[in-house]
Design goal:
There is one protein chain. With 369 residues, this protein is α+β, with helices and mostly antiparallel strands. It is 34% helix and 22% strand. The protein contains nine helices and 13 strands. The strands form three sheets. Strands 1, 4, 5, 6, 7, 8 and 9 form a seven-stranded mixed sheet that branches. A four-stranded antiparallel sheet has the order 11-12-10-13. A hairpin with a 2-residue loop joins strand 5 and strand 6. The longest helix has 21 residues. The two termini are 26 Å apart. The protein binds ligand DP6. The site of ligand DP6 has 17 residues, from helix 5.
């Protein structure tokens, strides 16, 4: 597939108005995406667990404009309140995807969105938000094509595979990691030599066998710091250009995915812990060694990490942590260890969460209409 495969043939824009709703989950990367080229092409492949509980619900209402003005026109509401400060991001997204969805300028859109997690939780809503919006837009395209009587029956048929691929492709243009939030339960994004179907343009389901140890894996998200990050992901990605360790880091990500392919098959939890924690710390090491350098971890992030290491040493548990581009800690563990690990979290880790807040999540299976 190339970018061109996502440009539709001209269609008759026969639909006057309508509305679609999608619920899309967040995801947590095991091998991290950090560094990108032009047009949101990742510098290295990444792999993630799709989450279940943390999600965005978006309703997209659309109405044909009376006067064709060749302009983008939309309003955004978060929890029923108009959010004009989101407009520049969505406008930039719409401009990037305009050539792939040629109906965008023909309609006025109302985007109504809400998140299952609190806004000020420090959990980024860009992955779930962009994927929910991309899915709503795909539903419009699907309806336009299916309703177009000038097309042949074959041209009008719209496979689920193409729908998901293009939704992921569009979501990527909104926010890179969003392309991993369309399906579940394990998603790979970015070319990798051992995964033939992998692509820099969209996420795909992990195509190999996965051991039962990794079914229903748990992710308890400790909200260590709910404040806004001082450095956005986009700025961080750009600091990987000319970074002294960039090439080694990108090669390491390829290597870690090769290792994970074997680990997912064998069920080797000890090796899983090693890769996942090393990836999280490498991500933050890249931040600390870029120019300008920055630190997103907080003292409580380190407290939690040390307690997890102690607990593992004392009990032989397979609990581990990962981090995204912030201070919050994702505590990952197999389902069969839930009882023991939840006790540990409540007794020892919750004290390091802001206002004692945490979210119990687990692997999920993708977006729902
Ligand atoms: C650290 O997808 O938020 O969470 O493409 O600029 O929107 P943009 O960045 P974003 O970066 C996510 C980075 C990460 C790692 C990951 O999810 O793989």
């Amino acid at each position: 597939m190339t970018e061109k495969d996502f440009i539709p043939k001209p269609y008759n824009k026969t639909i006057e108005s309508g509305s679609f709703t999608w619920q899309a989950p967040s995801n947590i990367a095991l091998v991290k995406y950090w560094g990108k080229k032009k047009h949101q092409i990742p510098e290295n492949p990444s792999i993630s667990f799709t989450l279940d509980e943390c999600k965005t619900t978006t309703t997209l209402k659309f109405e044909k404009k009376i006067i064709e003005d060749n302009e983008l026109s939309f309003d955004i509401f978060l929890d029923g309140k108009k959010q004009d400060d989101f407009k520049p991001k969505i406008e930039a997204f719409f401009k990037r995807i305009d050539s792939y969805l040629p109906f965008l300028k023909e309609y006025h859109f109302i985007i109504e969105t809400s998140n299952s997690f609190p806004h000020s939780s420090g959990i980024a809503s860009s992955a779930s938000g962009m994927s929910a919006l991309a899915l709503c837009l795909m539903s419009i395209e699907k309806q336009l094509i299916e309703n177009d009587v000038t097309l042949s029956a074959v041209e009008r048929s719209f496979s689920e595979e193409y729908f998901n691929q293009k939704a992921s492709f569009l979501a990527r243009l909104g926010s890179g990691s969003a392309c991993r939030s369309i399906e579940g339960d394990i998603i790979v994004w970015g070319n990798h030599k051992e995964i033939e179907e992998s692509s820099n343009l969209f996420g795909i389901k992990f195509p190999f066998e996965v051991h039962n140890n990794f079914k229903n894996y748990q992710d308890t998200i400790l909200l260590v710091d709910k404040g806004e990050k001082q450095v956005s992901s986009t700025v961080g990605h750009n600091l990987m250009h000319n970074h002294s360790f960039a090439e080694q880091r990108f090669a390491q990500a390829h290597d870690n995915i090769s290792k994970l392919i074997k680990i997912f098959k064998s069920g080797d939890l000890k090796s899983f812990v090693e890769i996942v924690e090393s990836e999280a710390l490498t991500l933050h090491a890249m931040m600390m060694t870029s120019m300008p350098y920055f630190i997103l971890m907080k003292p409580n992030t380190l407290e939690v990490i040390n307690k997890i290491w102690n607990f593992r040493q004392q009990t032989g548990s397979n609990v581990c942590f990962t981090l995204d581009a912030g201070a919050n800690v994702h505590v990952l563990y197999p389902e069969q260890e839930s009882e023991q690990v939840m006790k540990f979290i409540q007794n020892e880790l919750v004290a390091h969460c802001q206002n004692g807040h945490y979210i119990c999540d687990r692997i999920g299976f993708g977006a729902l209409q």
